[in-house]
Amino acid sequence: MAEFVKYVDVTKCDGCKACMVACKNWNDLPAEVTEFQGSVQSHPKTSADTWNVLQYIEHENGKGDLEYLFRHSSCMHCKEAACEKVCPENAISYSKFGSVVIDQDKCVGCGYCVENCPFEVISLKTYKDKNGKEYRKSQKCTMCTDRLEEGLQPACVTTCHTDAMQFGQKEAMLEKAENRLSEIKSRFPNANIYNPQGVGGTHTIYVLAEKPSVYGLPESPKVPTSAVLWKDYAQPIGKAMIGATTMAVVGAFITNSIMSKRKNNHDEDGGGSHE
Amino acid sequence: MSKQPKSTAKVRRFSKGFVLAHAVNAISFFALYITALPMYTEFFDWLYPILGGPEGARLLHRIFAVAFVSPTFIWIIFDYKGFKVWLKELVTWKKRDLQFFTEFVKELFGFNFKHIRQSFFNAGEKINSLIQIFTAILIIGSGFPMWFPQFFPRAVVQWGYFFHNVGFGLAIAVIVGHIYLSVVHKSSRPGYSGVVTGEVPAWWAKDHYPDWYDEEVKKGNFPNLDDPKHKKNKGA
Q1: Domains, chain B, ranges and CATH?
Q2: For B171-201, what is each residue's pLDDT tens digit?
Q3: Which of B20, B31, B75, B149 has the greatest number of CB atoms lying within 10 Å of its CB?
Q4: Residue B103 CB-density burial (10 A; 0-12 exposed, 13-18 middle, 19+ buried)
Q5: A-chain residues near B168 (CB < 8 A)
Q6: Architecture of the domain made up of A4-223
């Protein structure tokens, strides 16, 4: 199946927050009361109950002008997702659309994904079962994979009234991004397409007006080296090592039995034990 | 191998403090291993219901983590002398320690071998100790940022997962051999009582740790097993 991408052109965003509301609405997420952030921004960052946050950034552009920058921020849906790599329960997987989804039945709430996400997008939510016992599950944007399966588009995209967000096949969206970039370069010389290759590219691509760091995005995110060494080397080697030592002691047990049988045959009338 | 009936005499090898420290170490290690096993491989996910779900497993893992940190302190508090002997032995390496390993391989697979004279700990036990010290530092050191990620930089927590994995992967591989030698292997298993009661058969101690045994005989602590047969050799 073709890869699908959410295209976000921040230069067309007018900061209306309809995407936030649509997300809460479709995904049935409870409201999250927060302290005043010092700007129109409602939440400091994405959380377990707020899967997308509209950023409001007051940026001095170096020419003495103040730019009021907006960005719809949510899960990037990396092609090589660190969360998927470190999940010990295989609860995180790639859907056929390219989105990264969490299987809530498999999630044990360990938080490895939370600590390893290069974009710090995933959060744990604490629930209470009917006996009052607490348990945790990982939560983040699903790219509305349930909607995609019904032939619909993500709720945030559908609701966007300026067409700052669009959803479609990867090639078409990348082409759109390139075209838009050439249109805005004169106004935003630092403009760039954010589709970081350190995580294999993402299924949410941005046309940013300023450098990624201005938006609080990592300039060159990647799957943490520690996660690669841990999951691709330490874990398989560890499993092989316990196998190897187990085989060694089983082998030792067998040769010992054979050897002591031979010795017993030699001194049958020795009578004594060899202990 | 000798055909004479073995003496039933026992000698004290480890103090009660060491026995306690060793037991706490062993029990907490396995409890930690089992409570984390479903996180290591999904094959053991059936352990979750037994451990009280992922939350129960996490709680137990943290309780035993605290226990796992304690053996060093137990040993130091109740048997500082024994602890010092151990440290001293760990840094003492002689040519005979290398010879020990070639003989050990023969011994392990049941071939004829000769005992290389060893002091209180043999070279194999010293290697085991050094690996367990190293892995315990890795496991405990990385456990803190994993338990309390809010107090550590993200990169430290991420590397913590890696070192935790390396630490217990190495530790469990070595422990398989350690347990085999102590409870299954014919030539070494008589020493098992050393970590339960603290006492081991005198003949076994003399065979395996002749330097230590002779020293204790000289001090008058241990019976001289050669005595009944060679009365005229009776020393001092």
Answers
A1: 10-226 (1.20.950.20)
A2: 999 999 999 999 999 888 999 999 999 999 9
A3: B75
A4: middle
A5: 238
A6: 2-Layer Sandwich (3.30)
